[in-house]
Amino acid sequence: MKTGQALVGGRWRDAAARFPVTDPATGETIAEVADCDGRLTVEAVDAAAAALPAWRAMPAHERAAIMRRAAELLAGRAGAIGAVMTAEQGKPLAEATGEVVAGADHLLWAAEETRRVYGETIPSTSTDTRIWLLPEPVGVVAAITPWNFPVSMITRKLGPALAAGCTVVLKPSELTPLSAVAVAECLTEAGFPPGVFNLVTTARPQEFAEAIMADPRVRKISFTGSTAVGKNLIRQSADDVKRLSVELGGHAPVLVFPDADVAAAAAGVARSKFMNAGQACTSPNRIYVHESVAAEFTDELVKLAEAITVGNGADPGVTMGPLIDDRALAKVRRHIEDALAHGARLATTRREGPGRLHPPTVLTGVTDEMLLCREETFGPVAPVLTFGDGESTEEVVARANATPYGLAAYLWTRDLARVVRVCEDLQFGIVSVNGAPLAPPQGPFGGVKGSGYGREGGHHGVEDFVEYKYVSVGLGR
Ligand code: NAD
């Protein structure tokens, strides 16, 4: 059995206790990892605070070179790290390997951006003053990441934080700490000075949160996870007025208009819905299809859903893995049962298990009141709703917007004016038109409303870790 250690101040550390990591496909314990307590978290903050002055002062091209090396190491080990990810998270090997490559790309993109963290000079109102805007790192950052993308969620935070000159204490999900350990190994080998990056594995996230909230040296928290935990962190951070970026839950609508390329729309929905067994914050949760194309769309989607091979992600040929745990499986079942009890119909064949496997499922006759149209399912269930000629575009968009969430939305149409209007009217942080990808490193990814605030990716992502100091200089003439 493998063991995983924490990384504090450049040293691999054991904790007094360990917690088990299980393979969601088999339920077997595959490793034991250091269960760090609040004291070790404080030591990690000590290390990050001690490393900050030298790291922020290091010339940008030197910092970029270390980050580039880390990205290369990560990409070079994509197969091996992908296998670790599959074992602890469940996604198929090809998906896991692809995520490591994408994660490395986030780090590489941020490495390049390191050299472009610019300040500004601003015209002043007097000949005797000058105004400068100096970009400075926010300081020590605590990053908290979820289990659904165990590598890319880390590098999307690490990259911009390090590019801005911050030092980091990372707490990955207790369900997927081994992927984080593998990332930490790459960073260590790349030559980051001790303390610039610290990894605190723990099965006691609240204790970690208490330690970082109580520590005034932690100036920023970057969190990705559920809306409930995110709201708690927002409340807890008020006392010390820490900066926060929160990437939270989603409830993505898809709008398929009658002029859409219906086959392409079905393929796009199948891709974004069934990827990672539906366990993505951008996963479509309400698919609004014009009734004139609903039958064609549903037939295509059902064909694609039934072509998916469900099984242990480590087995060749498997294209969808298990759900992460029993709670996740129970939620998926509850959402399906509620929909069926309220008049929805199952369009795919019903198959169950074994274990945490759940088949890709398409439901028709879904209405906005059903549970799965109000709560995030986080599983492989595609609910198809319809709209008709009697409903204006504005009315369908209003249905799409009627959610407390606002992360991603999808739009399928060939009418340019409709693209423009609907994009402007959708209350979501990200809109994909006709299947365009959502999360490349240069795109500022993030939500509005209950899906959080802050952006990851692009120069906006780096700016989330920068304080702009306004300097007004009197020349004394
Ligand atoms: P979660 O909120 O349960 O856990 C996320 C992280 O928070 C984990 O590291 C966990 O250990 C930690 N955590 C749990 N309780 C905590 C506490 N009291 N204090 C501090 N940290 C705590 O979420 P999850 O189940 O891991 O992830 C799924 C959720 O994440 C979904 O809602 C999904 O939509 C969301 N998500 C959002 C995005 C985005 O970019 N908006 C991306 C991926 C996932």
UniProtKB/TrEMBL annotation:
- Family of this protein: Belongs to the aldehyde dehydrogenase family.
Sorted alphabetically, which CDD domains does this protein's record hold? ALDH_F5_SSADH_GabD
Q: What is this protein called?
A: Succinate-semialdehyde dehydrogenase
Q: Which GO terms describe its molecular function?
A: succinate-semialdehyde dehydrogenase (NAD+) activity
Could you mention a single GO BP entry for this protein?
gamma-aminobutyric acid catabolic process
Q: In what residue span(s) does the Aldehyde dehydrogenase domain sit?
A: 12-471
* Glycoprotein found in the keyword field: no
InterPro entries, from UniProt?
Answer: Ald_DH/histidinol_DH, Ald_DH_C, Ald_DH_N, Aldehyde_DH_dom, Aldehyde_DH_Superfamily
Q: What is its EC number?
A: 1.2.1.24
The beginning of the lineage is: Bacteria, Bacillati, Actinomycetota, Actinomycetes, Streptosporangiales
* Keyword entries, A-Z: Oxidoreductase
Keyword check for ATP-binding? no
